[in-house]
Amino acid sequence: MTEKQHITIKGVKEGLLFLLDDQCEFSAILDELQYKLEKTHQQVLTGPLIHIHVKLGSRQASEEEKEQIRAVIRQRGNLLVQSIDSDKQENADNKGASPELKMLTGVIRSGQTLQHDGNLLLMGDVNPGGTLYCTGDIYVLGTLRGVAHAGSGGRTDVIIAASLMRPTQLRIADVISRPPDEWITGDAAMEFAYLADGQMQIDKISQLFRLRKDPIVFKGV
C-alpha cells in the first residue's frame, strides 16, 4: 500500500494498541486493517493470545461499525479485542462529566497506594495505612479506614463514598477532612463525603440525588 497509512499499531504493556485515523472514510479503515492483518504485520501479530485495544480518535463509531472492526480482527484467532474507544470530547459547558468507572476487587493494605485517573469502585476494604488517589469519584463497597483523596487533579465536584466510613483522612481536591473522630456517626448506612461552599460535608448515600440530579430513564416498560 503506497497511500497514506491510516492505522498505527503500537506495543503497550497490556498488548497492542491500534490507533485509527478519525479523518478518513470508515471503509478505508476496514480495508487497511484487513491488509495489515493479512500482509504487512503478520510477524508482529503471530504467537500466543494478544490483547488488542482500539482507539478511534474523535470518531464516534456506531455499535455496528465497532462490530465490523471486531469481526476483521477476530479473523486472526490469537487476537482478542479488549476495548474500542473514542476520545472523550471535552465540553466547556460540561466540565464535570464523569469518566468511565474502573472496578477493582481486593483489599488495600497498610503501606499500599492505589492511583487511578477517573472514577474508582473498590469492592473491598481500605485498611489503616492504605491510600486511594483518584482524579474522579471514589466508591468503597467495604470499610474505608485509610486515606482517600478524590479529585486529586483539582476537581471539586467529586465524592468519596463508603459502606462504612472510618477514614484516617479524607481529601477532595485541596480540602482535607475534619478530625477523623468527627466522621464516626454510628450510622450503618452507606455515606459519602462532598464539598459544599469549600467545606467537607458528609451525608447518607440516599441523599446523593440532591447533589447529582441526573434523570432516571426506564426503558422497555
From TrEMBL:
GO process annotations (BP): cell morphogenesis; division septum assembly; regulation of cell septum assembly
Name of this protein: Probable septum site-determining protein MinC
Domain Septum formation inhibitor MinC C-terminal: 104-202
Keyword Cell division included in the entry's annotation: yes
Classification of source organism: Bacteria, Bacillati, Bacillota, Bacilli, Bacillales
Key word Glycosyltransferase present: no
Gene designation per UniProt: minC
Function per UniProt: Cell division inhibitor that blocks the formation of polar Z ring septums. Rapidly oscillates between the poles of the cell to destabilize FtsZ filaments that have formed before they mature into polar Z rings. Prevents FtsZ polymerization.
UniProt cross-references to InterPro entries, sorted A to Z: CAP/MinC_C, MinC, MinC_C_sf, MinC_N_1, Septum_form_inhib_MinC_C
Alphabetic keyword roster: Cell cycle, Cell division, Septation
The protein's assembly and partners: Interacts with MinD and FtsZ.
Boundaries of every Septum site-determining protein MinC N-terminal domain copy: 7-84
One Pfam assignment: MinC_N_1
Family: Belongs to the MinC family.
